[in-house]
Write a structure and sequence with these properties.
Blueprint: H1 6-27, H2 36-49, E1 67-70, E2 73-75, E3 89-98, E4 101-110, H3 117-135, H4 144-157, E5 161-162, E6 168-170, E7 177-181, E8 198-201, E9 204-206, E10 212-214, E11 221-223, E12 229-231, E13 234-238, E14 243-245
Antiparallel strand pairs: 1-3, 2-11, 3-4, 5-9, 6-7, 6-8, 8-13, 9-12, 10-11, 13-14
Helix pairs in contact: 1-2, 3-4
């Protein structure tokens, strides 16, 4: 991946702000009785109103504007007409284009009352792991392993299964670019990041093990042991001395 120009960074800042606004509004709709299909329809209207591009539609044949994965579904779920119920763990993953540059972000929402017990541990620890990974970026020269090790440490500290076969990635000129950003690794190893690079950091974890499998729909990735899972993601700019979260309001 080559670093973005200053003009491209400004475009991604604005696109990230718009994406974050949409995702935040969609998260508020994750309540009992709502369906993924309804949220996806609203998302498409919001994306068009924000003058952004729904780049997932048709990407490698994917049929929708966003991914909505529920409970043991961890990523790539196709929005459907099944109503959310109390206790569901819903992952909203939105990838959008803005002026030909791509941004990516995801959030996990526990349906109903404030999460408690294991669900609270899963959701809060996965979110914290995202920010631990971002905090591990010290600027140009940061190794991918620095991010990966920080994410892994937080997830394992909370006894969560660290998903190994799904990774974060470079993003900007395309949906998935090099380098891969695993959620486990060794500090001081892996590719060195340069100022101006943009990457998607996305911890994925489960209450059980880390093994995954594909569902019958050909898209949804499920936990093999059917355990509840969580997924958080930000698009992050590498700066000379640190980092900047782009997918934030």
């Amino acid at each position: 991946m080559k670093p973005k120009s200053q003009k491209e960074i400004e475009i991604m800042r604005e696109g990230g702000r718009r994406l974050a606004t949409i995702l935040s509004e969609l998260a508020e709709l994750v309540v009992p009785g709502t369906t993924g299909r309804e949220i996806s329809d609203i998302a498409l209207a919001k994306v068009k109103k924000a003058d952004m591009q729904p780049v997932l539609i048709g990407f490698q044949g994917y049929p929708d504007v966003m991914c909505i994965s529920v409970n043991d579904g961890i990523v790539h779920g196709i929005p459907n007409k099944i109503e959310f119920t109390d206790g569901d763990v819903v992952k909203l993953d939105l990838t959008l284009g803005y002026k030909s540059l791509v941004l990516d972000s995801a959030i996990t929402v526990a349906v109903g009352n404030s999460p408690k017990g294991d669900v609270k541990r899963l959701v809060e620890s996965s979110k914290t792991a995202l920010y631990k990974g971002i905090d591990a970026i010290s600027g140009e020269g940061t190794r991918v392993g620095d991010i990966s090790a920080a994410v892994q440490k937080e997830l394992e500290r909370n006894n969560l299964g660290v998903i190994r076969d799904l990774v974060g990635h470079g993003v900007g000129y395309g949906i998935h670019e090099d380098p891969n950003i695993p959620n486990y690794g060794v500090k001081g190893t892996g590719p060195a990041l340069m100022s101006g690079m943009t990457i998607a950091i996305e911890p994925m974890a489960a209450l059980g093990g880390y093994q995954i499998e594909s569902s019958n729909d050909g898209w949804t990735i499920m936990m093999s042991d059917k355990s509840l899972s969580a997924h958080f993601e930000h698009t992050v700019l590498i700066t000379e001395n640190g980092s900047e979260i782009l997918t934030t309001v």
